[in-house]
Amino acid sequence: MSKTKLVTLLLALMTSPAFGQAQHWTIKSETAPMTDQKLTLIMTPAEGFTKEDAEGVALAITCTNNKVEVAVFANAPNYMPAVTGRIDEGVISHWVGYSTTNVHMRFDSNKATGAYEWVLVEPRIMQAWQGIGMSSKGLVKKLMAVNRFMVQYTASTGATQVATFYVSGLEEAIRQVSDCKVK
């Protein structure tokens, strides 16, 4: 999925009513006019934000052609992630050259993970990638098995930010999307 398409869809979703919902999850689909490729976004706001917040923080799962990606959209003041690195040419990935940020994750009350590099698709979007030690589908499976997901990172202001997402109901939301296969 292109960087521009993801940003456009995230901004549109955060500022418009959605066609489907499963508990606190919002589901929106678009079809690319030039390719007829369907892109579906499943999204939930972080604790302290609402679906209506254009300047908010949200967890987004995108599904297209049975490919699943996970991202955190941080558009709120003081929440934009800091650049902590760059994916270099020694890595076999389509993310070569992109900036990264370090993220710690916590699932329910389990111990927090060590630092993982997430790709900064653009300054407001941190995306999990294969370098996290599990595939995006693996991360979504893990999210479906827990109730709370926390992401800690350093914001561009230098402050440590923790975004908390209540992810119960994700399995039901994914069931509503035919092209989102995670099992």
Strand and helix layout:
Blueprint: H1 3-15, E1 20-22, E2 25-31, E3 38-45, E4 57-64, E5 67-74, E6 85-86, E7 99-107, E8 116-122, E9 125-127, H2 136-144, E10 148-154, E11 160-166, H3 170-175
Antiparallel strand pairs: 1-2, 2-3, 3-4, 4-5, 5-9, 6-7, 7-8, 7-10, 8-9, 10-11
Please, could you describe this protein's structure?
This protein has helices at residues 3-15, 136-144, 170-175, and strands at residues 20-22, 25-31, 38-45, 57-64, 67-74, 85-86, 99-107, 116-122, 125-127, 148-154, 160-166. It is α+β, with helices and mostly antiparallel strands and 183 residues long. Strands 1, 2, 3, 4, 5, 6, 7, 8, 9, 10 and 11 form an eleven-stranded antiparallel sheet that branches. Strand 7 and strand 8 (116-122) form a beta hairpin. The longest helix has 13 residues, at 3-15. The relative contact order is 0.20.
The largest sheet is:
11 strands, antiparallel
How far the N terminus sits from the C terminus, by CA atoms, comes to 21 Å
Order of helices and strands: HEEEEEEEEEHEEH
Note poorly predicted spans: 14-22
Number of helices: 3
Radius of gyration: 15 Å
Beta-strand residue fraction: 35-45%
